[in-house]
């Protein structure tokens, strides 16, 4: 058990949303087009900014159900239509991307937004981008390690000389535009692999955990592993940050939120089960995860705030983002959840946690499962 108090470097607990561009349904249950989904996503981001959320992330996916295949394009459009919200990827599947283009795209978003862009780089729990762009799953780990190394070099240097296995070499290459504040915040996204926590700690990168099922507080040993690795590597405490991405929905009543979200979550998990070979989930299984220590934060504003505060006591995280639009959830329900998260949950969380410090608490057992946001 480790008990450490330190400044977050950010002041407040940040709350936000992330989306894969879910194809949504109208009140009659008719599905929209993939183009509708992208327009709905843009509208959600602009509402999140106006309502006062801290962060909105767009995750790269390449399916009919989740067509946000070009997050940087969506975020660039949103950058010009928003004023305050941080805009990031949740995640960029770096293994099948060109790090030079990723950096250039997000540095462009950063310029348009006045310094509000971030990258969360991950390997991806979904692998549809590998055959789409001609990469082998046999190179899954090596691709990620090499491309992360290059991305970090691009972030630190305007001119880069570099040589690797999977991409042509760079010889004193000029990399522009440059970020507004000198460098982009680059987070490492993971679904719970301990080696990813160690990697992030050694590199001194902030880490984002995708916690999509089970007991969320069972990630506490991973956050402790990450922090201790970073401290041993000599990194400044202000750079050591933890974010959590999880499913969730905020509605006026707890039971209403759970009933609505279960229907959408069931549809999503049923379709994923057909692809990945698992049975459809049951309502008792959902309820076990949508209450108490469970990873699904579906409930009233007061319930979601209380569960966020309790989870923070275990993980000491400084940002929590919810994936609300799943399983063809209607757009109106998605937008209402964004409003409630910003106007009721966020003030309650900040009032309870304060503005200046967090407590980092380690745990004794490890039980992390694969996540879906990274």
Structure description:
The chain is of the alpha/beta class and 374 residues long. The chain is built from 11 helices and 14 strands. An 8-stranded parallel beta barrel has the order 2-3-4-6-9-10-11-13, surrounded by 8 helices. Residues 1-10 and 356-374 have low confidence and may be disordered.
Summarize the structure.
With 374 residues, this protein is of the alpha/beta class. It has helices at residues 34-51, 71-79, 99-113, 129-133, 140-156, 194-203, 220-232, 254-276, 283-289, 301-315, 331-353; strands spanning 3-6, 14-19, 55-58, 86-89, 92-93, 117-122, 159-162, 170-174, 186-190, 207-210, 242-250, 297-299, 319-323, 358-361. The strands form 3 sheets. An 8-stranded parallel beta barrel has the order 2-3-4-6-9-10-11-13, surrounded by 8 helices.
| Helix run count | 11
Low-confidence stretches: 1-10, 356-374
Largest sheet: 8 strands, parallel, barrel
The strand count comes to 14
**SS-based class:** alpha/beta
Radius of gyration: 19 Å
Question: How are strands sequenced across the largest beta sheet?
Answer: 2-3-4-6-9-10-11-13
Give the mean pLDDT.
Answer: 91
Q: What distance separates the N and C termini?
A: 27 Å
Proportion of helical residues: 40-55%
Shape: globular
* Beta strand %: 15-25%
Write out key terms for the chains shown.
disordered N terminus; disordered C terminus; 374 residues; 41% helix; 14 strands; alpha/beta; two-stranded antiparallel ribbon; eight-stranded parallel beta barrel
């Amino acid at each position: 058990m480790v008990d450490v108090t330190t400044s977050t470097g950010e002041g407040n607990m940040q709350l936000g949303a992330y989306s894969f561009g879910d194809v949504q349904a109208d009140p009659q249950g008719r599905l929209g087009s993939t183009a509708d989904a992208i327009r709905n996503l843009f509208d959600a981001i602009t509402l999140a900014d106006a309502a006062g959320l801290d962060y909105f992330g767009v995750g790269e996916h390449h399916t009919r159900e989740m067509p946000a295949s070009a997050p940087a394009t969506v975020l660039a459009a949103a950058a010009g239509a928003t004023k305050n919200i941080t805009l990031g990827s949740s995640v960029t599947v770096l293994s099948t991307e060109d790090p030079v283009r990723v950096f250039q795209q997000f540095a462009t978003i950063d310029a348009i937004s006045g310094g509000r862009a971030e990258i969360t780089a991950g390997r991806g729990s979904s692998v549809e981008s590998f055959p789409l762009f001609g990469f082998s799953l046999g190179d899954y780990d090596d691709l990620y390690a090499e491309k992360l190394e290059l991305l970090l070099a691009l972030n630190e240097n305007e001119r880069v000389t570099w040589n690797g296995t999977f991409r042509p070499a760079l010889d004193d290459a000029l990399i522009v535009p440059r970020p507004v504040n000198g460098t982009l915040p680059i987070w490492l996204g993971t679904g719970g692999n301990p080696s990813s926590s160690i990697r992030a700690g050694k590199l001194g990168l902030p880490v984002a955990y995708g916690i999509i099922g089970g007991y969320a507080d069972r990630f506490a040993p991973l956050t402790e592993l990450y922090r201790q690795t970073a401290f041993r590597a000599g990194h400044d405490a202000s750079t050591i940050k933890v974010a959590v991405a999880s499913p969730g929905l905020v509605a006026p009543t707890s039971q209403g939120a759970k009933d609505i979200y279960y229907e959408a979550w069931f549809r999503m998990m049923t379709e994923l089960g057909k692809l990945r070979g698992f049975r459809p989930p049951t309502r008792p299984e959902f309820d076990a995860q949508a209450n108490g220590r469970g990873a699904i934060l579906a409930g009233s504003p007061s319930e979601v705030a209380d569960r966020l505060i309790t989870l923070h006591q275990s993980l000491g995280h400084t940002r929590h983002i919810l994936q609300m639009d799943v399983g063809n959830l209607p757009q109106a329900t998605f937008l209402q959840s964004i409003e409630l998260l910003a106007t009721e949950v966020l003030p309650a969380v900040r009032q309870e946690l304060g503005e200046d410090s967090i407590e980092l608490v380690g745990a004794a057992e490890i039980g992390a499962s694969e996540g879906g946001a990274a």
